[in-house]
Amino acid sequence: MSLLLGLMLAAGVPADLGYSQIPDAGKEAQAAELMGTLRCLVCQGQSIADSDVDMAADMRRIVRQKIAAGESPKAVRGWLIERYGSYVTYDPPLSWTTAPLWFTPLLLLGAGLWLARGTLRRRRK
Amino acid sequence: MKRWTLWVPLVVFLVVVALAAWRLTGTSEMVVKSALVGKPLPEFTLPAMVEGKPGLSRADMATGKPRLLNVFASWCVPCIAEAPQLMKLKAAGAEIDAVAIKDSPEAVKAFLSRHGDPYARIGDDRDRLVQIGIGSSGVPETFVIDSRGRIASQHIGDIRAEDVPKLLKALEEAE
Do B129 and A59 touch (CB under 8 A)? Predict the structure, then answer.
């Protein structure tokens, strides 16, 4: 296996981006950050950066190829969302279904302040 | 403060418990539907998987007649289970193309001679480029492609006997 790998490297065959990094370190950093936030669809609960199943490698290869070709991480995430819906990303865009995630804490905080205000006012009397 | 407001925290707590109980006791198996259903099939071209049978490209799928696109693999056990149903669909006049996922010509050839060959074309999708490109997350899956090359619907999992009439109807409606 290592002999084969050595031969491939010697022959200048590009490495499989499913399992190896983009030569350009800046682009690899972009890809790595993105891959950490994309869901492995068959292992569910792991990102494609964490998973060792071959579907995750196939997704990493596509992500790295697109980033290496100059696409922005945002565009690549959008490409996957177009195919699998927001489910594929751990950083879901704001929409009607995800709105409660963002606004419930604010609502609860508001309710808490309102309760505290009532209690404090009564104490002062 | 009014008396009833005292109950608000308890109600909120019970709602949270009910939500948790609902999600924890439900089935954990979850299917990921393609978000491309209703949209045009993306552009692609795949080389032939086996000798004597052409590969597959988008142009082959937008021919003015609805077709089935079957995502399968010789190493996939439910694909064996659905093979007879695909043969039935073919016998009923359905035109079926396929992409073979992470496979080799020898293995696919052996699979077809053992379980039947309902396919007009088979594309070699060894890197899951087309599978991921159409929003499929497993094998087997079957897409109904309408006469203009639009993805009309997606069937996730193996085709059972009771799914055959449904798929034939979907093909009819995809004219």
Answer: no
Residues A88 and A112 in one domain: no
A6: in domain: no
CB contact under 8 A, A84 and B30: no
Instruction: Count residue pairs from A and B with Cβ separation < 8 A.
Output: 41
Find, in chain B, the residue whose alpha carbon is nearest to that of A44.
Answer: B30
- Residues B163, B170 contacting (CB under 8 angstroms): no
| CATH superfamily, region B45-173 | Glutaredoxin (3.40.30.10)
Break chain B into its structural domains and give their ranges. 45-173
Burial status of residue A68 (CB atoms within 10 A of its CB: 0-12, 13-18, 19 or more): middle
Smallest CA-to-CA distance from A53 within B137, B44, B30 is with: B137
ipTM: 0.84
For B75-115, write each residue's pLDDT tens digit.
999 999 999 999 999 999 999 999 999 999 999 999 999 99
* Mean pLDDT, all residues of chain B: 93
pLDDT, tens only, A71-110 = 999 999 999 999 999 889 998 888 888 888 889 999 999 9
